[in-house]
Amino acid sequence: MAGEKGGIWLDLYKHSLSIAFGLLFLLSFILHFYGSLKESNTERFEKHLSLESWQDYITGSRFWFESFQNWQSEFLAVAAIVVLSIWLREKGSPESKPVDMAHNENP
User: Fold this and answer.
1) Where is the chain membrane-spanning (predicted)?
2) Alpha-carbon gap, residue 57 to 37, rounded angstroms
3) pLDDT tens-digit profile of 22-78?
């Protein structure tokens, strides 16, 4: 509501992490697409083939193969960090529970 304390800015801030990650994902996707299309067309030009339109390239297998390879490695890295940070501890770390505290206890 417009009359609420903080208004739209507070609503945006409440979801700022999701918005930031969404924008970063979108930006990286666009930059990867642009770079990959440019590289593909450079290769095609050097082989005297016709250049590929962005519409044809985005529906082609090369772009999605590259994207899924990249996403697979990134998601594996993030998943490993998240899962390991839940179960493993680092003595002296402010983000970690004390080493001798049970998993179901709150600090």
Assistant:
1) 12-34
2) 7
3) 999 899 899 999 999 999 999 999 999 999 999 999 999 999 998 888 888 888 888
Largest CA distance in the chain: 66
- Within a 13 Å sphere around the CA of 77, how many CA atoms are in the beta-carbon half? 6
Residue 50 one-letter amino acid? S
Cβ atoms of 89 and 97 closer than 8 Å: yes
Q: Kindly compute the dihedral angle of the four CA atoms of residues 79, 83, 88, 90, in this order, to the nearest 10 degrees.
A: 50
Q: Are 5 and 13 in contact (CB under 8 A)?
A: no
Tokens coding 23: 């924008």
Distance CA 57, CA 63 (A): 7
- Among 9-13, 83-87, 94-98, which is the least confidently predicted range? 94-98
Q: What is the pTM of this model?
A: 0.62
Q: How many residues does the chain have?
A: 107
| 76: its two tokens | 């594996």
